[in-house]
Amino acid sequence: PQLASDFPSAEVGLITAASHIKAVANFKQVSQTLEEFDVEERPPSVLQEKYPNVTVFQSAVRSLQADQHTLQTEDGRSVGYEKLCICSGARPKLLTQDQPYVLGVRDTDSVQEFQKRLSSAKRIVVVGNGGIALELVFEVRGCEVVWAVKDKAIGNTFFDAGAAQFLIPSLEAQRPPRDAVCKRARYTTEQGPEGNSDGGPEGGLHTFTAGPYHTGHPTTLRGHLQLVEEFTCSSLRTKGQLMVSPTVGAWPVYVRLTNGRTVGCDFIVSATGVVPNTDAFLQGNNFSLAEDGGLRVDDHMMTSERDVYAAGDVCSACWEPSALWQQMRLWTQARQMGWFAGRCMAADVLTQPIELDFCFELFAHITKFFNYKVVILGKFNAQGLGADHELLVRCTKGQEYVKVVLRGGKMVGAVLVGETDLEETFENLILNQMDLTPYKDELLNPNIDIEDYFD
Ligand SMILES: Cc1cc2nc3c(=O)[nH]c(=O)nc-3n(C[C@H](O)[C@H](O)[C@H](O)COP(=O)(O)OP(=O)(O)OC[C@H]3O[C@@H](n4cnc5c(N)ncnc54)[C@H](O)[C@@H]3O)c2cc1C
Ligand SMILES: NC(=O)C1=CN([C@@H]2O[C@H](COP(=O)(O)OP(=O)(O)OC[C@H]3O[C@@H](n4cnc5c(N)ncnc54)[C@H](OP(=O)(O)O)[C@@H]3O)[C@@H](O)[C@H]2O)C=CC1
Question: Is 97 part of any domain?
Fold first, then answer.
């Protein structure tokens, strides 16, 4: 859409293997960098009606000759281009390939397959500890779930152990009584917790280093969910390959976990990340690939091939990033990159200069896990900061979890779980890099209206 509206006189072709296009709906700019929206599948005609200069070709791209500026589609078409943007996304990085008992979840088809298999399953094993696993274990009902997590706490790609511990009760069969207790703490990672009791309603220390869920033994949550932390899948055996004891039951597949335990199940969901879709159709060209397999792009979203840009999950941002931004393969970044790539392509055609967009200044993501609103900003997990940081935490059981990452007294990241209403203020504090040393003790004081404070 960005290209089509920048160049109403140019022909814009969208080639997609999917029968529907993904459209952004209910877009809301929450703050300078935070945006919230839904992704909906719509028929391609919607795009063509809005932008008459867009033609949608529904076929997969089979091959590309970047040096000749042409590509071929599976349905036998040859398409020439002046500028090309590759947005072929990523696919699940499965534990093992070509194993009918291992499913990945990616698109409508794979979700339908998952639902079909789930409807007759008695037990499934979920492997992985990121976005998909978090969503899945919360949603699945009517089937036993064994969740094998190789870390000490759940949700390692989004949270630290503190946030994980805050979220665990949402997975418990019986929610704890609503004895909301607000605890505040300040601690540095090298020194361990260094609590204070100066102002929260109950004050006191809140440590997150070890909890009842870090035992390494399975924990039963919600009756049907068993969480096995610090262990993951080491091998798979199908029924025929394993001596099945009649007491164990004849499951179609058995998973051996790294703790030695063997778990039988109907199928395994491998929610273990993604790999960029760069193979097959891009072979024979000279694309530089990043370590994670993505197409390397510069600050113009340009790949190493002339006139070929890339955006979204397929690319790896290889420019010198802002100190507060990192790439994560998310809708938010796919939308921002696609929009910016369109602007770069237009600017290059018009030989106009273009600067890296402001949205790449600060990492910002808003989502929902376990029915809680989750906002993550900047270096939310102190990524790349080593020991050079300090954490401030406020936690009110069942209500909110707030974590701030400070470096040299300046805020560089935050995790906000629940309706904290702090996102805009914290975003500003991160962007303006104000020295917060004098305010550190009050920053998370729940009795202070922080927005007013910094007005
Ligand atoms: C189950 C699940 C839940 C998620 N939930 C969230 C969430 O809540 N929030 C969030 O921010 N992110 C979420 N994500 C991540 C998000 O979906 C991706 O980051 C985003 O879709 C990437 O967009 P993209 O356009 O780069 O790639 P995709 O959305 O994967 O689109 C790539 C398109 O390219 C097409 N394609 C591929 N190869 C070819 C070819 N050779 N020829 C023609 N077409 C081709 C595909 O058919 C597809 O339509 C989720 C991901 C999954 C799997
Ligand atoms: N609400 C949201 O924002 C959502 C976002 N998404 C996005 O969709 C994409 C796909 O999601 P997902 O597949 O969950 O990917 P993620 O990258 O989020 O998580 C993958 C998880 O699997 C772990 N892992 C990798 N290999 C193994 C292994 N061999 N054994 C055990 N664990 C392993 C990773 O650990 P480690 O990190 O240590 O490698 C990580 O915890 C991601 O980009 C994700 O951000 C998905 C759903 C919801």
Answer: no
CA distance 400 to 373: 9
**Residue 22 belongs to domain with CATH number:** 3.50.50.60
Give the C-alpha separation, 379 to 395, whole Å: 19
Predicted confidence (pLDDT) per residue in 157-171, tens digit: 999 889 999 999 888
Are 214 and 74 within one domain? no
* C-alpha–C-alpha distance, residues 360 and 299, integer Å: 10
Considering the domain architecture, whether residues 56 and 141 belong to the same structural domain is answered as: no
Q: Is 56 in the pocket of ligand 1 (CB under 6 A)?
A: no
Looking at the structure, tell me whether residues 392 and 244 fall in a common domain: no
Q: 372-413: per-residue pLDDT in tens?
A: 999 999 999 999 998 889 999 999 999 999 999 999 999 999
Higher-confidence position of 202 and 421: 421
User: Is 258 domain-assigned?
Assistant: yes
The stretch 321-330 carries a mean pLDDT of 97
CA of 132 to the centre of ligand 2 (A): 7
Single-letter amino acid, residue 116:
K
In a domain, 189, yes or no: no
Of 86, 315, 330, best ligand 1 pocket probe by most atoms within 8 Å of the beta carbon: 330
The owner of tokens 């492997």 is 127
Q: Are the beta carbons of 101 and 114 closer than 8 angstroms? A: no
95 lines ligand 2 (CB under 6 A): yes
- Region class of 3: left (phi > 0), else alpha (psi between -120 and 50), else beta: alpha
Question: What ranges make up the beta strands (E) of 54-120?
Answer: 54-58, 61-65, 70-73, 78-80, 84-86, 90-92, 102-103
Q: Give the C-alpha distances (Å, rounded to integers) separating 446 from 34, 149, 199, 396, 420.
A: 23, 33, 8, 10, 10
Report how far ligand 2's centroid is from the alpha carbon of 80 (Å).
37
Q: Which atom of ligand 2 lies closest to the CA of 367?
A: 1
CA atoms within 13 A on the CB side of 175: 11
What ipTM did this prediction achieve? 0.97
